Amino acid sequence: MVQTASPTFSCEDWQKGYESLRTERSYWIDEVEGEIPIALEGTLFRNGPGQLDINGQKYGHPFDGDGMICAIAFKDGKAHFTNQFVKTPEFLAEQKAGKILYRGVFGTQKAGGWLRNIFDLRNKNVANTNVVYQGGKLLALWEAAQPYALNPKNLDTLGLENFEGKLEAGKVFTAHPRRDDRTGDLWGFGVQPGPQSKISIYQVNAEGKLSTESQVTVSGFCFLHDFAYTPNYRIFMQNPVSFKPLPFIFGFATAGECIELRPNTPSQFLLVDRQGNLQTLETDPCFVFHHCNAYEEGDEIIVDSVCYPDYPKLEPNTDFRNIDFDRVVAGQLYRFRINPKLGTVKRQLILERSCEFPVVNPRCMGQKYRYAYIGAIAKESGNAPLQAIAKVDVETGKQEFHSFAPRGFISEPIFVPRDHHADHHAAEDDGWIMTLIFDAAHNRSDLVILDAQNIAGKPVATLHLKHHVPYGLHGSFTDQVF
Ligand SMILES: [Fe+2]
């Protein structure tokens, strides 16, 4: 019999984390429990939807929220907070109009029903998914457009980044680039979807110069949110989705709502080698947003990914704030063993508990690794909002958790090595896990710093912000202090 665990949260608490934050601020964080390590030096950048409504007109999906960057800079045991919205022309126009002018990709329609939305196929660039610092450039990323360049010192928006014309108009850049720590190169991709989808693979070097490594064409509609990287392969999971655009074109549904998982259809790994050769391998039907890491070992490529049994979408006209978590499909961490020579893929469950936002020590990107850090629910089974940080030893299977339930809700963890300049002799888990927590009890957010070697233990430091930060998406840490 299935045991239903008692709820670990209240819906009212969880919903409060989706209130818009309209203020932009810059201040020293003076309320700190514990101590910020003196050795912790650098800047944490976070991106996510800062505004989820305009004048009370609600967006239909959190992924349609306006991108807001938070920067928390650490030096000498002190921390400074700054936040700013990415000032895209669409954001500025909507702020001026005081109402929704654009349809969102995932769930937002203009008011007035389908007649106000029909044939309006423009996408609002919300620049809300990730933020990375590469080659002196701070880039706010959203996968269906070029990045927005920002001033890393004050988060002012500088404009669309086309990398000296190398990322031409109409080309897009993923929200999930991966940095190879050994070379300093940031690898990314862009997809032009269609009946035939074209994937371009990009390299941005340590000086911030972009070049195109290869282009491959695959049959079918591609929804590729993330990719996995190894020194010799760029690896994509082609989810078996179809896109039926008519409801979108005629204004009844948003583009994201027209995506469906084709039943009983295998997923496909697309392996692209450095020469641009494409190999396609089938695996069990599933949907993947995020990969944790990948590496090459003997004849095999290991890829660890969060897999869903179905495409986790909202039905049109449902309020995401009122979702029933018991009916939401849960993501679980799986290991895929791909053998390109034999053309085989084997899949094995690593973390059964519902989870998302997997990360590793940045030095392990594309390399054999031992520890995955990931957001998880605060109970063993079923589904719920993410309220815990898990550390998974992928060698032994050991799992440890730090739970913030019942009133804390976590965001993506970020691993920060204790010594960025160590030549890889330090233990892989010698460092800190940082995550922004929405604390419903105080209606504010905390930046929590955990010791990665003692993740279940008391936090090293809890930094209380003066306000909340709506649930975010992705971010990164740089050892530069801004
Ligand atoms: Fe993502």
TrEMBL record:
Identification of the protein by name: 9-cis-epoxycarotenoid dioxygenase
BP terms from Gene Ontology: carotene catabolic process
Source domain of life: Bacteria
EC number(s) per entry: 1.13.11.51
PANTHER family per record: BETA-CAROTENE DIOXYGENASE (PTHR10543), CAROTENOID 9,10(9',10')-CLEAVAGE DIOXYGENASE 1 (PTHR10543:SF89)
Binding-site list for Fe cation: 176, 225, 290, 474
Enzyme class, spelled out: oxidoreductase
GO molecular function annotations of the record: 9-cis-epoxycarotenoid dioxygenase activity; metal ion binding
Cofactor binding note of this UniProt entry: Binds 1 Fe(2+) ion per subunit.
Keywords, in A-Z order: Dioxygenase, Iron, Metal-binding, Oxidoreductase
Keyword Oxidoreductase: yes
Required co-factors: Fe(2+)
Family assignment from sequence similarity: Belongs to the carotenoid oxygenase family.
Keyword Amino-acid biosynthesis carried by entry: no
